[in-house]
Amino acid sequence: MDKIEYEGTVWAINHGLPQPLLDHCIKKLVDHGVKKEDIVITDAPSDVKVGTVVVDVYPYHIEVGRVRTTRNDSYISGSIMIIELKTDPEGKYID
Question: How many CB atoms lie within 10 A of CB 42?
């Protein structure tokens, strides 16, 4: 399993997603080497620096990116990894 290399905060972007999905996202990030205490779930990260890891959460995968450029309060990131999120037939997230 690939490890995510990072320093400081890992921003997980939440756009009103359900808590079970966010909990599973945190578990998968921990499985990939991110410390739980370094993960911040937010709808708008603040003070993002070049090189920071940001995670876009979707219902069936999470996209891990690294910030390449910042301007004012905006950033552009490039994808470094996509982690598939699997569910059982009832829709519960599984490993």
Answer: 12
Strands (E), the chain: 10-13, 39-42, 53-57, 61-71, 74-84, 86-87, 93-94
Q: Which residues pair with 61 in a beta bridge?
A: 84
Tell me if 76 sits within 8 A of 67, measured CB to CB. yes
Q: What percent of the chain has pLDDT over 90?
A: 79
Closest CA to 74 of 48, 42, 56: 48
Structure tokens at 7: 């320093």
Q: For 33-55, how does the pLDDT look when each residue is reduced to its tens digit (9 = 90+)?
A: 999 999 999 998 988 999 999 99
Q: Within a 13 Å sphere around the CA of 64, how many CA atoms are in the beta-carbon half?
A: 23
